[in-house]
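Q: Hi! First time doing this. I have a protein sequence and I read that you can turn it into a structure. Is that right? Here it is:
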Amino acid sequence: MELDLYGLDPYEFRIYGHIARRGDCYANLKTIAAICKMSVRQAQYALKDLTDKKLITKIVRKGTTDVYRIADRSEWKELNYTVELKSALEYFNRAIIRREKKDMAGAVEDFKQSIKLYEEELKQKEGGSTRKEKDIQDARKELEKTQQRLAISEP
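A: Yes, that's right. Below is the predicted 3D structure, encoded as structure tokens:
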């Protein structure tokens, strides 16, 4: 769950998985990109972002390829989330669990609360945030799915 909170894009997530599967990744950038089905530039950006977030470590070796490895959780860069955003994420995750347990009414309420908190967080940040806007869209989609399931399950 903690990794999910970092909001990794698909390229970062794919490379993170590639490195995690190998333990130590000695491959050159072109090979990593080919294995992960992305351009060399996308792989470059993803590796830099993962390194900046301290989710992976990079060991520079002169005259040969660098080594990438998954960083220990204690080394990860702390996220700068406000109380509202943390609460919104908790409501969202709880709603998903409730829906899986067939508690549709509870899931609907949790999704609604999650959306409300996401929107409050977005208002506080001037200039907006495409990531938070995407989170709101995701929460709304999940709310709609849950409401549809609830309508189907009620006689």
